[in-house]
# Entry
Amino acid sequence: MSIEKITAARFEELIRGEKPVLLDFYADWCGPCRMIAPAIEEIAAEHPEILVGKVNVDEEGELAKRFGIVSIPFVALIKDGQIAATALGYRPKQALLNELGL
# Structure
C-alpha cells in the first residue's frame, strides 16, 4: 500500500474513516525522520488494513500544533478518531510496531 501525504484539508476525513490511520510527522531536513522512513514504508506494505500517511510539519504546522508536537519524528496511530498509541523519535521497525501495538 502506498503512503499518502496528509494535509489539513484531508485530515478530518481520514481519521473519521473506518481504517486505523498511522501518521508519520516529519520534516525533510530531519535526519532521524529519514532513518525511520524505510520502516514506515515497510509497515505500509505489510499492513494494508492501516492507512499510512506522512505529515510534513513545515508545511502542515497547524496539524503539528494540534498534536502538540515539539520533536520529530513523531508517529501516531489513530483508531476511531482518537489517538491509540504514539512513538517519539527513531525506532527500528520491530520496536516501532511493538510500541504502537501492531
Remarks:
- The CA atoms of residues 87 and 96 lie 7 Å apart.
